[in-house]
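User: I'm new to structure prediction. If I give you an amino acid sequence, what do you actually give back? Let's try with this one:
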Amino acid sequence: MDNGNHQIPENANEHCPGPQSEEAGKADACAGCPNQQICATAPKGPDPDLVTIAERMATIKHKILVLSGKGGVGKSTFAAQLSFALAEMDSQVGLLDIDICGPSIPKMLGLEGQDIHQSNLGWSPVYVESNLGVMSIGFMLPNPDEAVIWRGPRKNGLIKQFLKDVDWGELDYLVVDAPPGTSDEHISIVQFLQATGIVGAIIVTTPQQVSLIDVRKEISFCKKVGIQVLGIVENMSELRQSISDFRFVKSTESGLENDVTEWALSYIRSNAPELLSVISCCEVFDSSRGGAAKMCAEMGVPFLGKVPMDPHLCRAVEEGRSCFTDQKCTVSAPALRTIIEKLVSSCQ
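Assistant: Good question. You get back a string of structure tokens that encode the predicted 3D arrangement of the chain. For your 348 residues, that looks like this:
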């Protein structure tokens, strides 16, 4: 629906004043509307800061959102590795973490304990390499265990400040790691950036239905706000691991476990050494109903590919390293690289 110049959500109440109206979320017609809280806290009316944001963003060629329906599906892991990969392609890359309450990007980039510096040009990103800069509220917390207990308007204010005050310089890509779901942060980043041109969004999921249900909502959100879905990434599609990396245990009658890894590997070396080069595959999440690929076909959005669960990728993320320079990430790195190459091609 359309109310003057304001787009009305499809599930809005009758006589909705419009999400950009000063009465949004406050008018009598808003009572009981599922969008009432979001509309009440979202920015209203013409915003003079949008001009400043547009000037900042004018030097950035491609702006990509990384989204997920649920937390814990590997969205930030994907955003971090995507940024590493783009930087290793000699692109100028910025990674903006707008997950205000759960900023994990500083750890995933190996930047814990770093501080933001300010110059006459604005806030300077924290750099991993000369062509990979990062900005996150994680750099602003006095204690990494400090909880961020903020309501919507304060979150929106910080996101706006990141966009208008951070001096990114000229970038080929700005990757935005958003929190899970479709909340204030998502509405704000779209409203602040839409006029400057967002290439689109990547949505990360796991294969099981409990995750895909929320991904469908994320796709619906993108369509409603006019953001192109660049594709869906199915993360943790299955566990893949070399047998030589296995840990073996044997249960006793009392229920205790004895570690027999050394014995088991010695037995394999002696009797079936060829097994040591075999990769085992195990389905962790139920994908019997077709997983993300089937959902993409049903909803008409691109399927970018699957990334298996790889303990070596998990270790690289914990240590703030790129999986693409880790020779042990032989399972996850090729899958990620194929997906990222597809993404880069779609941005050309």
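You can read the tokens as a compact description of the fold. Here is one thing that stands out. The two ends are 33 Å apart (CA to CA).
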